[in-house]
Amino acid sequence: MQTERVTFLTTPDHKAALDAFARAKGMSVGHVVREATSRYLLEREMTDEEQAALLLRELDGAVPRMRADIEGAMPSARRRIEE
Fold this sequence. Notes:
Layout: H1 12-25, H2 29-45, H3 48-82
């Protein structure tokens, strides 16, 4: 993949928030910015139906992960309640 450099200016607070978000997600800032701008561009070109379909695909992946996280937290929560 051939790449090109893009530079943009932002406030120190925005940069800190971007750094923190990327770190929390285990991604580089560049990856976060590429993903965000790609989504932004896609949203401008998609119909409402296409956007809904994309959202449903995202939810199909997110809901099982959320359920697994909740189920994983339940034993610890039960222990805390019993204590």
